[in-house]
Amino acid sequence: MLVRYRNNLSLIHPLFAAVFLCLSLSNLLAQQPASPGKLMIADVIVQGNRVVATQAITSQLATKPGKEYQPNVIQDDVRKLMATKQFAHIDPRIESLPDGKVNIFFLVKEFPSVVQNVTYLGAKHLNEEELGQLSLVSKGKPLSPITNKLACQAIVRRYNEQGRPFASCDLLKGGDSADKEVIFNITEGPLVKVRSVDFKGQEFVRGAVLATHIQTSKKFMGLFGGTYNSAMADADAVKLEEYYKSFGFLDVHVSRELVWTPDGKEVDIVFHVREGIRYQVQGTPQVVNLKSMPAEQIEQLSKIKGGEYFNENKINEDKKLMEDYVGYSGREMRLNPVPVFSPDVPGLVRIQYEAFERPPARVGQVFVVGNERTKQNVILRQVPLFPGQVLTYPDLRLAEKNLARLNIFEASADGVRPTVTVLDPDLESEFKDLLVTVQEASTGSLLFGVGVNSDAGMNGSIVLNERNFDITRIPTSLDDLMSGGAFRGAGQEFRLEAVPGTQLQRYTASFREPFLFDSLFSFGASGYYYTRRFDEYDETRAGGRFTLGRKLNQYWNANASLRIEDVGVYRVPAGAPSDYTSVEGQNFLLGLRANVTRDSRDSYLRATEGSIFDLSFEQAFGAYNFPLVSVEMNKFITMYQRADGSGRHVMALRSQFSWAGDETPVYERYFAGGFRSMRGFQFRGVSPNTNGYMVGGDFMFLNSMEYQVPLKANDQIFMVGFIDSGTVEANISKITDYRVSAGAGLRFVVPMLGPTPIALDFGFPIVKADTDRTQLFSFWMGFFR
User: Which of 102, 274, 418, 534 has CA atoms 20 to 30 A from the CA of 242?
Assistant: First the structure.
């Protein structure tokens, strides 16, 4: 594991000098007499062991000859040896010597017998290796009756986890210290399935919503899953109580009832909910024990008002807001929210925050550990703290989020995550060192997928992606290449993608540097080959794109890009209009594009709040010279949600305005229709038409209004109703046909198929042009792994 730090260069030479001085004096100091008052250890002696070797015991001890005598260290050593379960008793003793030193004795009492054989009777669904790992009993170890009894309990717990609540385990031999062998008699019992899960007494939300907050589930289609786990059912009752308490039901009680079938192989689980009073907040939340500023100064930041229902999420948001307010001044403050109940008026609770403060501090050194491959600068540029500056505590959390967002370190919700902590926070020093801890994740992936949609037919997908790429890390040997160290560590992204299909094929190689020269600018380069079969002709594109981007703030981004393409137009039918015949063959295109984007969506997959705005301008040169202008806006509004914030009804609004110059060739013009554009019309089915050929337009104006309603409590199936409208015209000054369609559809979120939902839409044109091509059903579905 590497340990690195961020520091000023001026400190490096003094640091080397200090290290050299320490090394030079180490031998001298080692031979000096101990400081007055210290009791040194002369020898460590183990007595009473017959089976366990002395060296095996002393190797586990922190107590060593030549070290200072410390009773707490000796006690830790005793606990460590007892944890091995090889000894019945350990008695540490001290012997004083004439020279002022001491001898430490560890008098150990081993178990009188050694396990000569281990037998598991009755086990059919756990093999001997699995049982051995559970029992920790094996041949040649000291026989411990306590260990053997605990092993029985561990075996029963494992069977319970597997859905066998009637499992039992008895010790036929091994319960007495004089025994020579251990025999476990196991009764597995039947495998029990959960036939149904029900809820009674709830009024706050429906039972289906409560079911999304527990792990216990019934058999799927009466056949799969639904294994009964008694410990899980008990934990689910606790989870339900925690869920209710977070929304103000502070007196809630949840119990579970088991209803068995006559054969004992199935069980109905009923959770009985006694909600009680839903508490309201009394008055304005108060902060106590705050010394650095008047409490009223941060109390006014609270968004919780008197009369509102108690809400744990809002309390935590207020807590974070107030801690950050003080934290930006360089002073750490922790708030502990404590509910204070009113004895006279039931149902009222006052929120009181107990403050704990530390003095202001500045940043000392910044150490980094855990990055075996990733370069130090990749990590440090995500930490907005530098030596000498005021230690702004909210930036510690920001740094953790930045590191997790890189997607190159382990960052599970309940497991290992990047952390940025203050070393020795209680040390009385103005400067505090920071420790950045990361654990590198697997960053390379090979994905296979297949998709089918109404716009492009069936496609396959093969993607090779590396999220922690380093274009300069050339392999030094075959071992270096095979071990995965080559071409990794700079936080860049490299992607190879092949998408063969019936109507569309795309092959791409791309590279992206998110922080060009450790700046806020990003750089991307890609090369691609693309073919697409349209009704009127076949199109190919081969070229490259280079992009320079800049993140302006939390929401705004700006980009400038250059694309160089060779556009091929082939298979143009005889009698096609000049829009196609004039561009048949190969056409060179060079485009200079600039765009700005504002994105405040709360989710990229299914947004429920926020918006995304994009404005772009491109000037194309080559076979034809023409400009392209586009403005697009998407807005998401939550119209309704359940009392717990789930089940959101979302209104999604979309508008797009696009314009192209008069000399724009047909392969760069605008077309509408399809599931991403105007439903109820075919892909490219809305366009000016010449002699039966869709020739595209220089002006496009689209609008869409969609209302999304979840049908299931887990929000994985929802219905949509929509109205799409718009037009594509040859000229912006001649708008002749404004189309309107309406319809409904379904969205299915299937986690095992990937994050993108399956979309099924039925669209009905209400207003259309005579030459438009309509389509009742449009869809998208895919599988990616």
Answer: 418
Closest among 615, 656, 652, 648 to 635, alpha carbons compared = 652
Q: Report how far residue 368's alpha carbon sits from residue 362's, in angstroms, rounded to the nearest whole number.
A: 18
185 bridge partner residues: 121, 170
d(Cα 630, Cα 632) in Å, to the nearest integer?
7
Let me know if 662 is exposed, middle or buried by CB neighbors in 10 A (0-12, 13-18, 19+).
exposed
Q: Render the burial of 539-560: b for 16+ CB within 10 Å, e for the rest.
A: bbbbbebebebeeeeeeebebe
Considering 357, 372, 395, which residue would you say is the last residue of a domain?
357
Does 605 share its domain with 741?
yes
How many structural domains comprise the chain?
5
- Is residue 285 within 8 A of residue 299, CB to CB? The reply is yes
Cα end-to-end span (Å), the chain: 32
On whether the CB atoms of residues 91 and 28 are closer than 8 A, the answer is no
For 572, which DSSP code?
P
Considering only CA atoms, which of 653, 649, 655, 615 is closest in space to residue 636? 653
DSSP letter at 672?
B
Instruction: Render pLDDT for 205-219 as a digit per residue (tens, 0 to 9).
Output: 999 999 999 999 988
Q: Report which of 373, 524, 547 is spatially closest to residue 444, judged by C-alpha positions.
A: 373
Tell me which residue range forms the domain holding 135: 117-187
Q: Is 482 helix (H, G, I), strand (E, B) or coil?
A: helix
Strands (E), 423-537: 431-437, 444-453, 457-469, 492-499, 504-513, 521-533
Across 268-277, 336-345, 703-712, 769-778, least confident range: 336-345
* Confidence (pTM): 0.78
pLDDT single digits (tens) 4-32:
445 543 333 333 333 333 333 333 333 33
Q: Give percent helix, percent strand, percent coil of the chain, each to the nearest 5.
A: 20, 40, 40
* Angle, alpha carbons 52-53-58 (nearest 5°): 105
Domain-embedded: residue 763: yes
